[in-house]
Specification:
The chain is of the alpha/beta class and about 500 residues long. The chain folds into three domains: about 100 residues, no CATH class; about 250 residues, 3-Layer(aba) Sandwich (Rossmann fold); about 100 residues, no CATH class. Helix content is about 40%, strand content about 20%. The strands form five sheets. It has an eight-stranded mixed sheet, with helices on both faces. Strands 1-3-2 form a three-stranded antiparallel sheet. A three-stranded antiparallel sheet has the order 15-16-17. A hairpin with a 2-residue loop joins strand 4 and strand 5. Helix 4 packs across helix 5. The longest helix has 17 residues. The protein is globular.
């Protein structure tokens, strides 16, 4: 049976916050305490190195790590020293701890979290590592890899209204606070909203918290920015696989994500952005892009979708069967594994993609751009500004003709570098590459024409003049060279390798 979410008692939560601050229970403070080895082991879900470090340290910070992060019992007197303002009785009243003889044990996971350089704390359900048992269906996750990915990719302009759709415990809402005047958070799970309300108080935030499925709680409302880590996991609808509220939206296949793509535009102001994570099925004989184009048809939205992973049905089943706390070789695991394989086979699913979906509502009527990219390599951290610039570049390119593109004197971004590869003894390079140091870290192979144009991308010479000059020097057709230069500019400018003048 799941525990009740912690109580949103303003005075007691303020006392808790004071104790966490006094103990330096922060990302940097805990990192300093644990050191690199134990800290890295904890991120890999191994407790022992952190337990050894904290056992040798009697500071309040160490006690809080043992209690709330490791799930270990803590002596009552030690807990009182770690929570001098709140007190153990206050922690129990909030629903954070329970008494076990002369010790207290955590009922809730409380961890430090840093969002955009600001110290926060996140309360969530204790995980499998602390409890020693599989997760319950109404489990409320803390922060993890998916939430970190979404936060890293989200553009962060100053906006009036922002929506965290399917907020869970409120991780994305914390990131929205500094750049949104109003933050609305929604979730179908009442337990998740209980944690969100508690975390709002713990972080001195004022969120508009609403209950309901997906976009239903904000019917008829518009937002400048919508972010979501939705329940996108594709789960068989039979009884063989437990349905977890944090990952299962109650629909068959990838219908949850498809529905968001098709409907979320009605909640965006002109110029508004929606960004969310998702899975999509790739059917036998189909390209992954085909399915997403089907979803986008008729929405009128600009779309920039980056596929980061692709798994076959067996890999996908293994990932999500383990996610709930079940282990290979057990009867429960094998039963779930088979259910996933049967479910995918029933729809002729050959693979499952995962990625980041960025949608933009144009400011005025025009043909939307659709950019579907398969990008598996590592990317720069903190991509938000790159995503924001990429949307702006794509909008500009969608709204200007080829001749207008050629009229500008484009310049190479400062993080772009060129490499040339030659066979030993050869006079000319066999390959010329552009490398992007930041952003999506694209690598682009140049042709003879584009290499010649790239050499003069310093913001001084218009692309049209450069293209005509190159055509003359090469004895090539002017129109063909201009077309190749335009195509090159449109390809690399969208991701920031080439920049508009005066930017």
């Amino acid at each position: 049976m799941s525990t009740t979410p912690p109580r949103a008692d303003r005075a007691l939560v303020a006392a808790l916050r004071a104790d966490l601050v006094a103990a330096d229970f922060t990302v940097s403070g805990v990192g300093e305490l644990l050191g690199p080895m134990a800290g890295a082991a904890l991120l890999r879900d191994h407790l022992l190195p952190a337990q050894r470090v904290t056992a040798a340290d009697d500071s309040p910070r160490s006690s809080l790590v043992r209690l709330f992060s490791l799930g270990d019992p803590v002596d009552l007197a030690e807990a009182e020293r770690a929570l001098p303002t709140l007190g153990v009785d206050g922690a129990a009243h909030l629903g954070l701890v329970a008494f076990e003889g002369d010790a207290v044990v955590a009922l809730v996971d409380v961890r430090p979290y840093a969002a955009d350089g600001i110290d926060h704390w996140i309360a969530s359900d204790l995980g499998e590592l602390a409890t020693g048992r599989p997760l319950l269906p109404d489990h409320v996750l803390g922060f993890g890899g998916a939430s970190a990915t979404l936060a890293s990719w989200t553009p962060r302009p100053q906006v009036r209204r922002a929506l965290d759709l399917g907020t869970g415990c409120g991780v994305q809402a914390l990131h929205l606070m500094p750049h949104a005047e109003e933050v609305v958070v929604t979730d179908l799970s009442e337990r998740a909203l209980g944690f969100a309300r508690f975390n709002a108080l713990l972080n001195d935030a004022d969120w508009d918290v609403r209950a309901g499925s997906l976009l239903a709680p904000v019917a008829g409302e518009l937002f400048d920015l919508i972010v979501s880590n939705p329940p996108f996991v594709i789960t068989p609808r039979g009884g063989e696989v437990p349905l977890f509220e944090y990952r299962d939206g109650g629909a068959s296949g990838d219908a949850i994500v498809a529905g968001l793509v098709r409907t979320i535009g009605a909640h965006l102001v002109p110029g508004g952005i929606a960004q969310f994570l998702g899975n999509w099925e790739v059917r036998v004989g189909q390209d992954w892009q085909d399915r997403l184009r089907e979803w986008l048809e008729g929405t009128g939205l600009d779309a920039w979708i980056v596929q980061r992973e692709m798994q076959d049905p067996a890999e996908y089943a293994e990932t999500w069967a383990r996610d709930g706390g079940h282990h290979p070789g057990t009867a429960d695991f094998d039963r779930m594994y088979a259910a996933w394989l049967d479910d995918f086979a029933s729809r002729e699913v050959a693979a499952i993609g995962f990625g980041v979906i960025t949608l933009h509502r144009p400011m005025h009527e025009r043909a939307p751009f659709v950019d579907l990219v398969d990008l598996r390599q590592s990317v720069a951290g903190g991509l938000g500004e790159s995503i924001r610039a990429g949307i702006a570049a794509r909008v500009w390119l969608a709204e200007h003709t080829d001749e207008e593109v050629l009229d500008l004197a484009w310049r190479a971004a400062d993080d772009v570098h060129e490499s040339r590869h030659r066979r030993p003894g050869a006079d000319d390079p066999s390959r010329i590459l552009w490398h992007q140091g930041g952003g999506l870290r694209r690598q682009v192979e140049l042709t003879t024409v584009t290499a010649a144009y790239a050499s003069v991308c310093d913001g001084e010479l218009s692309a049209g003049v450069a293209a005509s000059t190159i055509a003359g020097l090469m004895g090539a057709d002017d129109a063909a060279v201009r077309a190749e230069v335009v195509a090159f500019i449109r390809d690399v400018a969208r991701d920031g390798l080439l920049l508009l003048p005066a930017t």
